[in-house]
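Illustration 12: non-specific serine/threonine protein kinase.
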Amino acid sequence: MDSKIQIHIWSIIIISCTITKVHSQNKPFNPSSSDSFILACGSTSDAIDANGRKWSSDTKFLTSPNNSLSATAQSQDPSLPSTIPYMTARIFKSSATYTFSISPNFRHWIRLHFYPSSYENFDSSNSFFSVTAGGFILLDNFSVSITAEALTQAYIIREFSIISLDYGTLNLTITPSSSYNDSFAFINGIEIISMPEIFQSVPMVGFSDENMDTGSYTMQTMFRLNVGGNYIPANNDSGLSRIWYDDSPYIYGAGFGVTSQADSNVSIAYPSDGAKFIAPVDVYSTARSMGPTAKLNQNYNLTWVFEIDVNFTYLVRLHFCDFHLDKVNQMVFSIFINNQTAEAEADVIGWSGGKGVPVYREYAIYVNGRSGDDHLWVALHPNVEVKPEFYDSILNGLEIFKLNDTKLNLAGPNPVPVKVEEQPMQGRPMSPSKSRNHGVIIGSVLGSLAGCCLLLGIIIAFIKHNKKRDRDEFSSTIGWLPIYASSRSSGTRSNSKSSGSSNISSLGGGLCRHFSLAEIRLGTDDFSESRVIGVGGFGKVYKGFIDGNTTKVAIKRANPSSEQGVHEFLNEIDLLSKLRHLHLVSLIGACEENNEMILVYDYMANGTLREHLYKSDNPPLSWEQRLRICIGAARGIHYLHTGAKYTIIHRDVKSTNILLDEKWVAKVSDFGLSKTGYAVNQTHVSTIVKGSFGYLDPEYFRRQQLTDKSDVYSFGVVLFEVLCGRPALNPSLPKEQVSLADWAVSNYRMGTLDEIIDPHIKGEINLECLKHFVETVVKCLCDHGLDRPSMGAVLWNLEYCLQMQNNPNGPKIVAERKANDAYAMYAHC
Ligand SMILES: *[C@@H]1O[C@H](CO)[C@@H](O)[C@H](O)[C@H]1NC(C)=O
Ligand SMILES: *[C@@H]1O[C@H](CO)[C@@H](O)[C@H](O)[C@H]1NC(C)=O
Ligand SMILES: *[C@@H]1O[C@H](CO)[C@@H](O)[C@H](O)[C@H]1NC(C)=O
Ligand SMILES: *[C@@H]1O[C@H](CO)[C@@H](O)[C@H](O)[C@H]1NC(C)=O
Ligand SMILES: *[C@@H]1O[C@H](CO)[C@@H](O)[C@H](O)[C@H]1NC(C)=O
Ligand SMILES: *[C@@H]1O[C@H](CO)[C@@H](O)[C@H](O)[C@H]1NC(C)=O
Ligand SMILES: *[C@@H]1O[C@H](CO)[C@@H](O)[C@H](O)[C@H]1NC(C)=O
Ligand SMILES: *[C@@H]1O[C@H](CO)[C@@H](O)[C@H](O)[C@H]1NC(C)=O
Ligand SMILES: *[C@@H]1O[C@H](CO)[C@@H](O)[C@H](O)[C@H]1NC(C)=O
Ligand SMILES: *[C@@H]1O[C@H](CO)[C@@H](O)[C@H](O)[C@H]1NC(C)=O
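Figure caption equivalent — predicted structure in token form:
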């Protein structure tokens, strides 16, 4: 039983300060190399994985090798990090035991690797089994395939830390479930690795005078996050081969705060030698804090939410290191765990003693099933009562461990896969990962993106079907003006309820100028083919001149035989003749003679954004130019959403609809599909789905309800196009890469986004700028509109990125009004 020490709260704080700063160990950690085992199960020889780790054959550790067989996976999922150990497995039809002789002096990691595939005649979906080790139940009735499906992961790693066993042998027993007739067990990899004792006595949340000696527990690692930083692979850990993941998928709502990284001239110095085992420097040198604006920080909690199993005690370990401040009481905040105060006055410098010194704090909390809530909440909030200099809070790393219960059990139920159709349609309070991220999570595509994947299937089918018509995406003559009725969803053309369709009178009423057909003919050499600069489903676009060859214009002529686009034509005139904005393309006038429908626009010398990103001979744009273009486009869309009497939803934001004038000023174009007449207090308009594939908001697709957040989604795709220099959809790529939105987000989750950044700009992007940019884009691509930022917030964030890019060390405080824009929507999530 755990020893409960009765100590006054103050002495706890003092004691834990000593404990955590100077890491104490009873036994020095100097294991022999024979105390660690890394096994590729089912493999007959030694092999090296993609990270250079050596995996040995498991055969000689099995007590009865003839009781099992080795098999090879029938297919290789592209997101496997390495074929070793995942492509081979050992299969058990009955109970089997691995025996390891280990040092009795140390705690050990046990890491189990599973890849749910078919292995010869064995289909992993029929496999349910239990795993016990050293008398502890690690897994029970465990289904790899259900777990992987629920977490949308290609493979599963389970990490446990087992207490030192006096007897010097560790038996790991795998038993197929007896509740299923054809059940079998399988495993792909086993790691048994000795580790120092890094667990000690910690206070229990809600019981100010109780401590719990976690050093006597066997535990399962549930989450291990590098807060505000990137994925850290096992070989970059500080000697304990742990994997650290990005924390952003767990952030509650949109209260992302801001991330920061230690300047190169601040050195992160461990307070003692042993402390390096607690977490690597990479964890301490990045952080997430609330933001620059004290007033806003007072109004929200920086919150992470985790799905966990009920009826267990959890150890929550928080890692801190402040690399900006250096005085006590400069920043004081409260830490809440499951809505209870775990720490009222957290002062990182007060704890660590100085700038750049790592420190950690731990709390134990029992989570029962009574409240019906299987979530663990960790929240930070500035403590204004003690009047610190900054109203902010900070976190660098976060680990959550599940402790064994009285039955020496650690196993929980299998998670329940989320069915796409059953997703709640109304804005739920967003739990960032809807899937149950048990154990060590492998950031793959999130459950919430499953909808996109389904959508993608439909989209691909549609693209194949529609290939001929879809000139915009596939023809080599890329028009630079918006092209109507191309690359849009099928079955929605003629019965469109597009607004503004009845209002031809606006042609005369607005700012729009009338042209005679003769003037147009003159200006285009009688529609000479040599003047064609773009072709679309709507018709052709010509370069032309008006006013006696003095003014260069773009002339869009509807194909007279086409009925397509009449509504769009009228809609565009209606809207554009009323709107004037630096970042919206200007309609000069129109001509409607002889059944011709012709629009005349300002000429955009530099064409579309897209033709400066890829598939063209244009020299690549610099990152700063790209950011400025994105900011201009964001201003244009923001104006549409908020600048006019009614909210205007563009509905077809994409890189071919962002045009560039001779000074590279971005102008949003193509209002043929735009929706207006939706008053500010109305949250959406019902409509038939239109837009361009690859850019289409999945929520809009499902619910057919259009909101301004649909434009935010599409704009997010454009931002990734700008960053990665590739099309939103590229059907010639492998399946998982076809959709840029899915591919980039999944790379982001896996920490590999780096690899898909446009190589032309990769070297010039400021890291902080990049992180901020990417976080913003990922937020824009949230499955649920409510979770996406407003266009105003996107704009502010892009401006912030530009500031970071140009002046990374400059003052980071920005005008409060702008920050307000950014945070205004956080309250909703
Ligand atoms: C296992 O099988 C091999 C050949 O199939 C045989 O040589 C060996 O004796 C068997 N070992 C045991 C312990 O039954
Ligand atoms: C481990 O398993 C072996 C063979 O099944 C058995 O002889 C041994 O007693 C077990 N050791 C422990 C510590 O359970
Ligand atoms: C297992 O097989 C037996 C006989 O074939 C059958 O009666 C029983 O219902 C099956 N059990 C399960 C759990 O499928
Ligand atoms: C891991 O460490 C190596 C060598 O220090 C470094 O080059 C690499 O970028 C690191 N990888 C990550 C993902 O941090
Ligand atoms: C780090 O270097 C920058 C630029 O030289 C300087 O402005 C900043 O004050 C330095 N920070 C510290 C902590 O020395
Ligand atoms: C948790 O424990 C309570 C009380 O022992 C029990 O009623 C409940 O079923 C347990 N919940 C789970 C999920 O095991
Ligand atoms: C904590 O508070 C949040 C929001 O107020 C609530 O949704 C959640 O259920 C609470 N969690 C617990 C464990 O009470
Ligand atoms: C922050 O979380 C605590 C604990 O759940 C709660 O009492 C408080 O109201 C929250 N504050 C804000 C601003 O949400
Ligand atoms: C966890 O396991 C230890 C054995 O290491 C045992 O003494 C303890 O009682 C177990 N935990 C609980 C909550 O019972
Ligand atoms: C085993 O897991 C499956 C899937 O989660 C579940 O349906 C079943 O009830 C479980 N069986 C037992 C005996 O717990």
